[in-house]
């Protein structure tokens, strides 16, 4: 059987309805959507996202990443993105897998692996922490081998770590290998930006200076500006704004806070500024946005994967 077809059938068998489903395999989740979804902002954490069927579009600031079957996306930092399934139907639903990257396992492999052959790991024209690649047969075979374990759950505890290691090995031998290696090296530019990202995520609801963020990242202010934008396609303050607005939306949706209380909770002093920026990101003011999310939840799939 064609490996892509087998991957499609496994995901379909373990996702009988639309949604995102955690599996018994650690860090692995499956996604099924039977119709086109609306754009949905969220934070993409370091992960491998591989599509078996359908097409998805991911926006990082003003950059568009569109991918479909036998292509995969690698995220190497926590990134505010907007995701949208743009091709799906009840007969041919969107089907994908997401494997959160085990950074400890990747670090161990980086130490133990022999040097790659010449020409491997060169990520052409992709300086961002979000990159697309074509899925080669070896990587696809490793993904299928991991997902086959869902049909024999008694084998997962013993064989899933081996299958996941093979999948990570294929990634470390693929055309995004250099990006993954930079993510793991303590003083690489990507790791420095990741330190800045981690600090902003912990302090997003408080005012901060770019100088303070640069100090946390162990970079000069000018270097932070340059490399933060190179990795995330936005400035540190733009990154903070997206985190604030996404958390405010979650508070209004999940904890039933009113817009003013949510705005104050995430660090806004001006309710009118909050309303303007919320509408700019989500396409509607808070009350209208939350009403449509509750009325048609199936049209608003989470951004990741």
Features:
305 residues, alpha+beta, Jelly Rolls, Arc Repressor Mutant, subunit A, 3 domains, six-stranded antiparallel β-sheet, four-stranded antiparallel β-sheet, 12 helices, 10 strands
Q: How far apart are the first and last residues' alpha carbons, in Å?
A: 25 Å
The CATH superfamily label of the largest domain reads Jelly Rolls
The oligomeric state is: single chain
Radius of gyration: 20 Å
- Low-pLDDT stretches are none
Q: Output the CATH class name of the largest domain.
A: Mainly Beta
Q: How would you classify the helix and strand content by structural class?
A: alpha+beta
What characterizes the major β-sheet?
Answer: 6 strands, antiparallel
On the 0 to 100 scale, the average pLDDT is: 91
| Proportion in β-strands | 15-25%
Q: Would you identify the CATH architecture of the largest domain? A: Sandwich
What is the third-level CATH name, the topology of the largest domain?
A: Jelly Rolls
Number of helices: 12
Helical fraction: 40-55%
The topology string of helices and strands comes to HEEEEEEEEEHEHHHHHHHHHH
Strand line-up of the largest beta sheet: 1-2-9-4-7-10
Query: Shape from CA axes?
Result: globular
Number of strands: 10
**Structural domains: how many:** 3
Protein name: AraC family transcriptional regulator N-terminal domain-containing protein
InterPro entries: Homeodomain-like_sf, HTH_AraC, Tscrpt_reg_HTH_AraC_N
Domain HTH araC/xylS-type: 194-292
Organism: Rhizobium helianthi
